[in-house]
Write a structure and sequence with these properties.
single chain, alpha/beta, six-stranded mixed sheet, four-stranded parallel sheet, 12 helices
Length: about 300
Amino acid sequence: MNWLEEESKQGVNMNEYVILTDATSDLSAEDCRKYGIKVLGMNVKIGEEEFEFHPDTVFDVKGFYEKLKQFPNATTSQVSIYRFHHCFEALVKEGKDILYIGFASALSGTFQNAWVARNEVLEAYPQAKIVVVDSLSATYGEALLVVKTAQMKQKGATLEEASRYADQLRHKIAHWFTVDDLQHLARGGRLSNAQALLGMLMQIKPILRCDEEGRLVPVDKVRGRKTAMRRLSENFRLTCDDPSLVSVVHCDAYEEACQLKAMLEEENKECDVLIRDIGPIIGTHSGPQTLGVVFIARQR
């Protein structure tokens, strides 16, 4: 039984509800306060240092990605079942219902942990209502879905209405990006070591996206960074459905992000593109100089 069927089974409830997400969304503290969004932090270990990343974390973007070059085997941790259970139970005890919109299940076990914890809490508190939605997204794709859903909540949408809205919108959020160091993708199992080495020698830059299942898939290979940026801009032009909500995302590649922003705004004069830093949870796995564009498309 999927989450929509479970929602129908639980029935309509008019209790106050909380929108919850995780730190892979890279939401800002300002957005969390503005829209009343709660975020579960996630841990990063790099070298001998371990820290929890959260919207309130003071994050040194340049310092982190410089350190990642020294310690490319940095790791991140999922949100555990225990932490989800503790968070869900605390909110339920406050009389709140919950809408959790989480990191793509195809990229992490975090969403599955949320589902297990949800079922545990509902067994103990059958009167509660907890809906969990797989965003099929990461970083500002996930943030875009969460913020748009929170805006619906502020307009008076019930939990049922908001969760259905999120379920529909998630299929239209596009993520197109390129990476600079293919070894990070090789460590994550996206490329073989031989492919990564050959690509680096030939200055091959992959064009990747999150597909309809939320999986990270390579869709093209180009030679050189400028060509990769032009391809990102072209994909945006061909598929964008809402030019008012566009983000250029990057891992310490600000100058190129500015260039890509200009290219996108040239493609569509209605654009007002925001430039955003990719946080350490996603950045650990994509690597320094990752550059991408996130927007609402006609289809992914």
